[in-house]
Fold:
Amino acid sequence: MFKTLSLLFIALLIITLQIGVLPALHHDLTTLINLPLLFLVLIIFFYDYELSIQGALLSGIFLDLYSPLFFGFFIFLFLVQVLVIRFFLLHIFQNKNLGVLLLVSLLAIF
Structure:
């Protein structure tokens, strides 16, 4: 329960930084840096499957509330990314180290 509440608070903080602070610093910064995606990659890499699904749902819902796209776009996008990254972590990469974390982050961007 504490993990879910802390995940909710951190997701709110990251979405606030993505939507409110990054455009104020520079207008191209929001297209270059995707903080919720990096947060999701770290959750997938370091925590279990259920918490990564919850993180994808929470981040997707918060981004969908502020997005001009149809509702559910970011939820679907983040859930697909969780499944693809989890597949690569379980079946292709054998151990977890810094190189694998960087490859998974690069995979999430593409």
